[in-house]
């Protein structure tokens, strides 16, 4: 669920939610921390800190640890988050498989399963997904002690506020109300989101953009997706989507894209396009260690790292095209960090050099002076992006208040 502060009325319940969320986030991110320090940082009254921490302790969200060294008077007791009491199920519903992962509230993976996806109609996919979740819970019943949320991410146009899937490229859907269906089945909080946007959020919470406020993640795979983080918040709009970077035009004379435009980024950098170009050049006699029976993005990156001329050209060309799109986004959003994800990052030096070269040629110098570009530190095949939606709900207080009020 997207949490838009602009749409909220400043009533007592909202203030309570925001205060609890602020204190919980401080404890998670700055532990061990004392109640005195919490009061100083948050500017809340000591009595309010005592009340909030008492409830968090009661609900097994935090714990007291060894006392800090006294600076005069009674020693201050430190507090840190307690992650192991509750569990969440995070699911990545990709084009070919379903990844289901069990996490505690500290983003620690407790169990992991991958299942094939061969059902591509809404009703059959729904029945299959419910059956897989039940099977997963039964298999891991000793670890699933206090399940509080299920989150699902997948490609496409996702209304995360209403929990409705408007469009996904691999399943025939018509306003699929997946959140309501799963909530009725499992009676826990449900979160639905776009897979790449959620991965950007995960990078902000657990990956290489934790130390910056503004960042952009771009992932190249079968398509090109992106997620934009502004002031540590995921950028979305009225349609719960934004920044279709894959359909930025980088070559006006390029091939027609499935979107109807010509020369889209997606047509030049996705795996299928790079592999097709490799096949064409091999057939034309271009010298390379690659052969027609081993052309895949993994091998292309592998041989690029070994200095193979054709493989280097393929990765470099993809990086330069990607860099042109990155330059446009830098000119618009002025991020502090760009993060690249996908299998192309298996040739990081070649890719990053090519992206940086194109970026420097086509973006404003003042907007890139403090910009860094790196490859993702997260496993984008895992369900960490889905768990990031749970973390977001804890940090904005929506799920946190549910736990405090109902469990």
From TrEMBL:
Cited InterPro entries: ATPase_NBD, ROK, WH-like_DNA-bd_sf, WH_DNA-bd_sf
Classification via Gene3D superfamilies: 3.30.420.40, Winged helix-like DNA-binding domain superfamily/Winged helix DNA-binding domain (1.10.10.10)
A GO molecular-function descriptor: DNA binding
GO BP field: regulation of DNA-templated transcription
PANTHER family referenced in this protein's UniProt entry, alphabetically: N-ACETYLGLUCOSAMINE REPRESSOR (PTHR18964:SF175), ROK (REPRESSOR, ORF, KINASE) FAMILY (PTHR18964)
The family this protein is said to belong to: Belongs to the ROK (NagC/XylR) family.
Protein name as catalogued: Transcriptional regulator
Organism encoding this protein: Gilliamella apis
């Amino acid at each position: 669920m997207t949490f838009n502060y602009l749409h909220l009325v400043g009533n007592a319940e909202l203030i309570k939610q925001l205060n609890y969320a602020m204190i919980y986030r401080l404890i998670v991110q700055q532990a061990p921390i004392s109640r005195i320090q919490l009061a100083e940082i948050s500017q809340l009254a000591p009595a309010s800190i005592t009340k909030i921490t008492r409830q968090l302790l009661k609900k097994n969200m935090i714990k007291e640890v060894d006392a800090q060294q006294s600076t005069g008077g009674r020693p201050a007791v430190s507090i840190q988050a307690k992650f192991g009491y509750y569990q969440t199920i995070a699911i990545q519903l990709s084009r070919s498989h379903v990844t289901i992962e069990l996490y505690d509230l500290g983003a620690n993976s407790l169990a992991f399963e991958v299942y094939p996806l061969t059902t591509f109609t809404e009703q059959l996919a729904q029945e299959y997904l419910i059956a897989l979740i039940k099977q997963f819970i039964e298999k891991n019943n000793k670890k699933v002690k206090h399940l509080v949320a299920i989150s699902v991410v997948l490609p496409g146009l996702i209304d995360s506020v209403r929990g409705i899937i408007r469009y996904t490229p691999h399943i025939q859907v018509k306003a699929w109300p997946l959140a309501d269906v799963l909530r009725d089945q499992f009676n826990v909080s449900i979160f639905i989101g776009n897979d790449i946007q959620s991965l950007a959020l995960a990078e902000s919470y657990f990956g290489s953009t934790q130390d910056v406020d503004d960042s952009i993640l771009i992932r190249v795979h079968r398509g090109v997706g992106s997620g934009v983080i502004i002031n540590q918040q995921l950028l979305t709009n009225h349609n719960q989507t934004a920044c279709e970077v894959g359909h930025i035009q980088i070559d006006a004379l390029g091939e027609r894209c499935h979107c109807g435009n010509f020369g889209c980024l997606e047509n030049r950098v996705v795996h299928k396009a790079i592999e097709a170009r490799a096949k064409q050049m091999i057939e034309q006699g271009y010298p390379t260690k690659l052969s027609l029976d081993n052309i895949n993005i993994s091998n292309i990156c592998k041989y690029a790292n070994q200095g193979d001329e054709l493989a280097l050209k393929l990765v470099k060309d993809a990086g330069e095209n990607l860099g042109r799109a990155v330059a446009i986004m830098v000119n618009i959003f002025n991020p502090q960090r760009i993060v690249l994800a996908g299998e192309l990052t298996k040739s990081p030096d070649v890719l990053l050099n090519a992206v940086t070269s194109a970026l420097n040629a086509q973006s404003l110098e003042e907007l890139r002076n403090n910009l860094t570009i790196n490859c993702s530190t997260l496993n984008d095949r895992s369900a960490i992006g889905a768990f990031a939606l749970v973390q977001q709900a804890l940090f904005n207080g929506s799920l946190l208040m549910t736990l405090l009020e109902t469990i």
